[in-house]
């Protein structure tokens, strides 16, 4: 005869006190998702609906937009939130479909490395972008660059 445990019995040992990273990851996904909606729809509105719409998007449009620190920070916030949000989602998938061990550590390490490299490179591109590089032929420069 088998015995069925009481429904409120401790099947697992009591959780340790301290920082619950899974809870904070869950909260981050919800908060970043809401902020990303605002950032993405603001980005789409400005790029596609204001002015001449999609026909106006070219090198000069991006160069002019990134000349303003507000848009630099807007795009960097969108980049950081989207990459961290996506990497955290992928981490959850790795946790769900792999067993703890070497494979899981390698996959999580690859996710962390890829997200870090993309965040660093994307941030550098946004803040070091110069649409008017010195020594460039005048016919190749956007119209808003001062004539040299």
TrEMBL record:
It holds the Pfam family Sdh_cyt. It comes from the Bacteria. Keywords: Heme, Iron, Membrane, Metal-binding, Transmembrane, Transmembrane helix. Coiled coil: none annotated. The chain crosses the membrane at residues 27-50, 70-88, 109-129. The keyword Lyase does not apply. InterPro entries: SQR/QFR_C/D, SuccDH_FuR_B_TM-su. It is found in: Membrane. This is Succinate dehydrogenase, hydrophobic membrane anchor protein. It comes from Agromyces allii.
